[in-house]
Amino acid sequence: MHRICIVPEVDVIGGMASFRRKFEAGLAARKIAISHQVSEPCDAILVIAGTKNLLPLWKAHRRGMRIVQRLDGINWIHRRRNTGLRHFLRAEYGNLVLSFIRSSMADHIVYQSEFSRRWWEDWYGKAHAGFSVVHNGVDLTEYRPADKPRASGRRCRLLVVEGSLDGGYDMGLDNAIKLAETLAGKYGFPMELMVVGKITEGHKAQVEAHAHVPIIWAGVMPQNDIPDVMRSADLLFSADLHPACPNTVIEALACGLPVAAFDTGAVKELMSDEAGKVVPYGGDPWKIEPPDILGLAESAAEVLRNRALFSKGARAQAEKHLGLDAMVDGYLKALLEG
């Protein structure tokens, strides 16, 4: 029986923990054993981004153990916005650890998207290790469209799902509110905004003082509740800037939820023209300039007017390209066929 070691055993909010759970479920379905200790016998080690325990990983590397590193994006917001000294130092240290593993220990690198690969190579140069690009995937039986359409005569729900909307990422929430307000004011849709993710009470109060659409604060949710939330909405707004491979987009598509987004990061790689709308940002997203909300709203209005058609296209895109089996296949090829 094959055994894969996966480190770190991350279990927090966000994409790393979500990936680990999905990947381990895929391995279990194939009768592949899982370990979280690099000192234990295994066929290969998968490093999910980086780890604080560099010494044991280095010893495994010296023993000749095959190490595959899964790379997301690079910490960058702290270089453009004042997120506090502690956040700045943590982000820079994280980049240092990731780049060290990439350059000195990894035998193979799995980038989550072509965008992620280009980003790392632009900022840190090409790595000596081999590489592949494997998009994230999702269980298409768990993430599936609703059995019946939502009742008519209710508000159109714009959904935002992020791990955190604080710490410099508040502009995503601001853009979501402006989008909902434009869809309501200019296009006449009875809008409401649902926000899933970590946000402070003070930030909520500031937002509600100026917002002109109803906001549902769902907070941090268990992963098992996300499919039902996706099925309750009419449109997902992908709020992050330069996401390497946003799980929320993949999960939404699988649930038949169309997506509206600016063309930053890897969003366009995951989408088809029938699954939603990806529009030019308008300004320079690397400088966090104001985006073209009016252009996004125009495209989002088209999706809402043809919601059933785009919902069908979203699910078709997920079935064709974003299933869990395809993701697991890609990682096993990197881990076991090296």
What is the ordering of alpha helices and beta strands?
EHEEHEHEHEEHEHEHEHEHEHHH
On the 0 to 100 scale, the average pLDDT is 93
Strand content: 15-25%
Q: What name does CATH use for the topology of the largest domain? A: Rossmann fold
Helix content: 40-55%
**Largest sheet composition:** 6 strands, parallel
List keywords for this structure.
single chain; 338 residues; 6-stranded parallel beta sheet; globular; 12 strands; alpha/beta; Rossmann fold; 12 helices
In short:
With 338 residues, the chain is of the alpha/beta class. The chain has 12 helices and 12 strands.
Give an overview of the whole structure.
The chain has 338 residues and is an alpha/beta fold. The protein has 2 domains: 3-137 and 323-336, Rossmann fold; 156-321, Rossmann fold, CATH 3.40.50. It is built from 12 helices and 12 strands. The strands form 2 sheets. A 6-stranded parallel sheet has the order 2-1-3-4-5-6, with helices on both faces. A 6-stranded parallel sheet has the order 9-8-7-10-11-12, sandwiched between helices. The longest helix has 20 residues, at 85-104. The radius of gyration is 20 Å and the shape is globular.
Draw up the topology in text.
Elements: E1 3-7, H1 15-29, E2 33-35, E3 44-48, H2 54-62, E4 67-71, H3 85-104, E5 108-111, H4 114-124, E6 130-133, E7 156-164, H5 170-185, E8 191-198, H6 201-210, E9 215-219, H7 226-232, E10 235-237, H8 247-254, E11 259-262, H9 267-270, E12 276-279, H10 293-305, H11 307-321, H12 324-336
Parallel strand pairs: 1-2, 1-3, 3-4, 4-5, 5-6, 7-8, 7-10, 8-9, 10-11, 11-12
